[in-house]
Fold:
Amino acid sequence: MRFFKRYFITGLLIWLPLVATIWVLTVLARTLGSMVPTFLSPEALFGVAIPGFELALVLCIILFTGLFCANFIGSAILSRWEALLGRIPLVRSIYNSVKQVGDTVFAPNGQAFRQAVLVQYPRQGAWTIAFLTGVPCDEIAGLLVGDYVSIYVPTTPNPTSGFFLMMPRTDIQVLDMSVETALKYIVSMGVVAPSALTPPPTVRSASAAGDIAQ
Structure:
């Protein structure tokens, strides 16, 4: 039984990341492919099924959209389109919110997660890794006493969901690890610790760190 458990777990650890990666890519490909209308399907165009045609078509459309909107004419058309959407009450709220998040996360010079930090959450004495995202807006900052920062506390093992908090700058500890390293550590549920964490890195107070954007 020990022999079976040992090698079964070894095989599982080898296959699990590969299967999970294939599953995520498959779901993503199906989601993008489902966006193609029926009249543009390979069956409607060529009379035969072509695996991956819908995905390739969506990727080409995204690529050519980016190329077209990069020039003056495309940029002008995009501005008019966004102005039109901005006049529709419900659509305006959803579109602007998604666009702001997309611009922050995917922009080449964007800093969605500026730095990995250590905070006490959800109670005193319980520590977790979070990400510095900025500072509270002027309206909220005016109601808070002291210097506050905005942080995002991701959940494990899915860091795409989490909690947005505003905490005093003195209550967070800035970590030396990169944002990418911290994300890997969170996704692994703390099982796969980065080598840089052995021994644990020295943390410093965010109030003394001058590299955090005000």
